[in-house]
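Pasting as-is:
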Amino acid sequence: MTLRSALLIANPASRRGARDLATVVAAFRKHHVEVDTVLTERQGHAADVARELAERYDAVFTLGGDGTAMEVLHVVGQLGRPVGVLPGGTGNLVARALGTPLNTRRAVAALLEGEERAIDLGVLDDGRTFTFAAGVGIDVTMIEQTSVDLKRRFGVLAYVAAGTRASLGLESFRVDATVDGERHTFDATAALVANFGTVLGGLIHLGPAIVPDDGLLDLCVFAPRSVRSAVRLGWRILRHDFGGAPDMHFLRGREIRLETTPVRMAQADGELLGPTPLNCRVLPHAARVLVPRTVRRA
């Protein structure tokens, strides 16, 4: 794959969006790619920039958090241009899931020398899309309890600390999940509608055989009943062992609706959405992304 021109949409408010910008631009020039940079100024600006300018370039790159990547992916996917997601945020879930190096200089080289891949997107009722996952429960608590200052100081470790506290708190709720018209009820501490199945570069798998290009979304429900059960569940997840566990449930479909009792806050790709219900449907092969050639399929 040969790129001659690229649009770089950078979020200067993200953890590394401003700090690594000069390094990223220099990396493009080292590979003889003409790059134009636009800095975002508000939520939704990345999507507006992509919509206006993407067709002028061979590819669009984002340097920011998962929110910036999410804004751009759906817009640029509709225009038929590939997107390179550079790791400029805190969690960098999308970049990690795509196998992109976390060093931004190396990430530029890996994507410019990489290949294109078509992936599914999830879409919400209001038209917003998500790339990685949407859900309720522990993941929302992690986001709510991780301040901007902690994210800047400790990066993904701040999320890990908040997630550990939330997991051991065992705050459960009822989930009524409707998957392609069929209703299921669970008691849960977390319910995720996942498009990608791996976290932290493949160290953690959210469920069995979750892939982002099968035209389906995966519902992952976790329901530990005690601290001991939570620890055992965490160990099984680390071992990628999902068979026959009573505190894990997995379903797959094209349309998934989550209702909770009591009402819970929901999130998508690390951005808070508002209260449940949460409605998700899949957009098959709606985006094209750049991935390293050696990436392991998620």
